[in-house]
Amino acid sequence: MEGTSIKASAKISFLSTSGCNFRTNFIVRKSISMEGNGKNNLSLRCIRAQQSDSSDEAAVIMSEVNDPEVVLKVKEWEVGKFQDEIAERDGIRIRRRPPTGPPQHYVGPFEFRLQNEGNTPRNILEEIIWHKHVEVTQLKERRPLHTLKKAAESMSGRDFIGALKASYLRTGLPALIAEVKKASPSRGVLKENFDPVQIAQAYEKAGAACLSVLTDKKYFQGSFENLEAIRKAGVKCPLLCKEFIIDAWQIYYARSKGADAILLIAAVLPDLDIKYMTKICKLLGLATLVEVHDEREMDRVLAIDGIELIGINNRNLETFKVDMSNTKRLLEGKRGEIIRQKDIIVVGESGMFTPDDIAYVQAAGVKAVLVGESIVKQDDPGKGIAGLFGQDISP
Ligand SMILES: O=P(O)(O)OC[C@@H](O)[C@@H](O)c1c[nH]c2ccccc12
């Protein structure tokens, strides 16, 4: 337990269960790295995957050993094991889980809190991701991938990117992805009497091309029930499931609840994850919005084949600072050229309140905007949209 500082004197240090896991993990990692990378015996590695990790993915990998898709799946499994190393190589600062175990330990009625550099999140995004990791691990136990897959594959989807393009052609203004957002960690509760279906219907009527529905409970007071309810209420706008995705399982889950698109955050996901998850989305007929915040993330995403939709977040998810010039900076010069060549649609995200804001990001090159706070806060979110654009954009 070297390097562990115990905050209060009454608190006791002990080796947590996760400490044991790490040791097991270490042994597994060692044996895998001895096999080299990439070209070694695939099935041997699959068997090892199954032996070392009783997860669903390993079972799926085993059942599809002869499928070319398996290569990617094994990669995904590897990403799980080598996550930190791969993430570091891609310049990712967000760690997927606390390196020294969760910060809280419950033993019977007692809570032990060990705090040290390793188990305290460095910023809000990291805190969200650590929480998501626990949440998804629990959800996956209740709904294994193979049962979920059937539900996801039986859903029919709407064309998210097509709707954005059609709206841009219709209005000559950036297509609106209107966000159904009750609260956020940076702004607190945005709307007290929050009726997600009513808001979604008002957005659609007022000219939104697509909707974004927050599904994270703890930090955004969203839910998958909201997503499902909006879909079932007959709203025709394609739906983006606004979730912190760290595991392919979540994509199938989102689809089974009615999503037409999902968000992948480049600050969180290594290239390998982005490639693999985009591939799954294509198989399921979902669009992928890949979110970047800085030049490095933009360059990583531009180097990945098959990306059709990139979001530039004006809000830094580590500090909450909003800076609209971010969109402009990331679209200047060579990057803008590549985006045009590849025919990628860029979505300006966050912190837009006025027609001037819209004009500013449109001049920078975006063809769509993702807006939550400024419209959801209005008594009539439909009127909020007209206010945001300075004109009625309803169809
Ligand atoms: O409410 P705003 O400032 O208009 O922002 C909307 C949207 O861009 C924001 O909610 C968002 C962008 N990327 C995210 C990733 C996770 C959670 C939320 C977000």
Task: Explain this structure.
Residues 125-385 form the Indole-3-glycerol phosphate synthase domain. With 395 residues, the chain is of the alpha/beta class. It folds into two domains: 17-122, no CATH class; 152-389, Aldolase class I (TIM Barrel). It is built from 17 helices and twelve strands. Strand 8 (261-265), helix 11 and strand 9 form a beta-alpha-beta unit. The longest helix is centred in the first third of the chain and has 21 residues, at 69-89. The model is unreliable at 1-55 (pLDDT under 50). The structure holds indole-3-glycerol phosphate (IGP).
Tell me roughly what share of residues is in helical segments: 40-55%
Helix-strand category: alpha/beta
CATH topology tier name of the largest domain:
TIM Barrel
Small molecules (ligands, ions, cofactors) in the structure: indole-3-glycerol phosphate
Supply the number of structural domains.
2
Number of helices: 17
Number of strands: 12
Which CATH class of the largest domain is shown?
Answer: Alpha Beta
Mean pLDDT: 82
CATH architecture of the largest domain: Alpha-Beta Barrel
Major pleated sheet: 8 strands, parallel, barrel
Identify the strand order in the major beta sheet.
3-6-7-8-9-10-11-12
Proportion of residues in extended strands: 5-15%
Keywords: Amino-acid biosynthesis, Aromatic amino acid biosynthesis, Decarboxylase, Lyase, Tryptophan biosynthesis
Domain Indole-3-glycerol phosphate synthase: 125-385
Protein name: indole-3-glycerol-phosphate synthase
Pfam family, one: IGPS
